[in-house]
Protein: Cytochrome c oxidase subunit 2
Amino acid sequence: MSAKSSAARSRAAVRMAGLGFSGTALLMLLSGCSLEGVGDAFGHFGWPGKGITLQAHKMYDLWIASVIAALIVGIFVWGLIFWCVIRYRKRGDELPVQTRFNMPMEVLYTVTPVLIVAILFYYTAVVQTDVDKLSKNPDQVVEVVAFKWNWQFNYRDGMGAEANTVASTVGSSDVIPILVLPTNEKIRFEETSRDVIHSFWVPEILFKRDVFPGNVRNTFEITLDKEGRYVGRCAELCGTYHAFMNFELVAVSSERFDQFLAAKRDGASTQEAMAAIGFTGDQAYATTTEPFDTRRQKNSWNQRGAVAAPAGAAVTAGK
Ligand SMILES: [Cu+2]
Structure:
């Protein structure tokens, strides 16, 4: 192999790499450029969707952008691998030119990954700080009380353990607890557990946070921007009936939320208050999940003194 043809070859390689990069960039531009558009086109790259809170949208954008960056790097690397495999395949018994190292190349493949990690770290830190941000005056404060194996949601008149509960909803073996919340308001959650560690998780919020017993009061804030009904789950293995620990988040307008809370304050049950804001009949109960048949009488492990579910209780495989 002459020195001349070798130089020509490496120039061709650089040209190919450049073409690959600009081709990918062009593809991105043509595909509408927005991260949301790319996410929609590729099934959100494994996420449930772009989320229903302002915080979730930021995490979603970070996720889509990170996957795109990973794919660009991946396509470039796969290209190089296949190019080398084909271009330098064995052609005879003659040993190829033996080289030791290439300093610019060594520097390049040390600096590039460090740069990529630094950029990913920067954007992750920015989004995480934003998601964890607590405002001084949230519009609503909800105390999440987790217990084996259900949820209680207390609407509070202020922040901290000393504030008072003005209304609350609680789940049972037969009724899924419903958490009604307003859109476009800053909602602060304060979490506490009566027994073991649980975890509050609404997949559509793209966020979960552990609920600890004792003095720990985990807090976080969200601003919902999409009305609807969304399933919530316990995301920390907390015992026998952990899988049954579901709830439902109902996001409504501020006006309807105020009506709901007013009805609850006047002593209405959760289902009556749901009816007061237009969710009548079956709609007054959870629609995204349903109670499991706990069969607590038959399988009474971990349930000393357990009360059997009343006759006629829903016998279902829950969603
Ligand atoms: Cu749990």
The helical segments are 3-30, 35-41, 54-87, 103-132, 254-265, 270-276. The pocket of copper (II) ion is lined by residues 146, 198, 234, 236, 238, 242, 245 (CB under 6 Å). The chain has a mean pLDDT of 85. DSSP finds six helices and ten strands in the chain.
